[in-house]
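Thread: quick sanity check before group meeting

JM: Hey all, I'm pulling together slides for Thursday and realized we never actually wrote out the predicted structure for the chain we discussed last week. Dropping the sequence here so it's in one place. If anyone has concerns about the input, flag it before I start.
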Amino acid sequence: MTVQENEKSEGKQVYVEGLKRYQKRGIRVLIDGVDASDATWEKLFEVREDGSFYMGDYILEDIPQEDPQGEGVNEEAEDYMKARRLKEIHFDIVYHR
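JM (edit): ok, ran it. Output follows.
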């Protein structure tokens, strides 16, 4: 294995380990709509002849909070993202032509 191949392999391993840490915290990681497992992680790095590849989509959810003024969610507010948390990460095939 060349140095470049070794670095690429290590990079994949670091990425997958990071996703597994999310799973341990209760955040679902799905590949093609199915919970990711040791048998499916490698799919994220496959090279396909048709130019397709996996892209991650990070799904957020609102953190329940009291809204005493009944104003609802203000997406322009500076603290908007503080009221949201990561719920799931979805990986699906996308095509680039």
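AS: nice. The chain is about 25% helix and 30% strand. Residues 3-94 form one domain.
JM: adding both to the slides.
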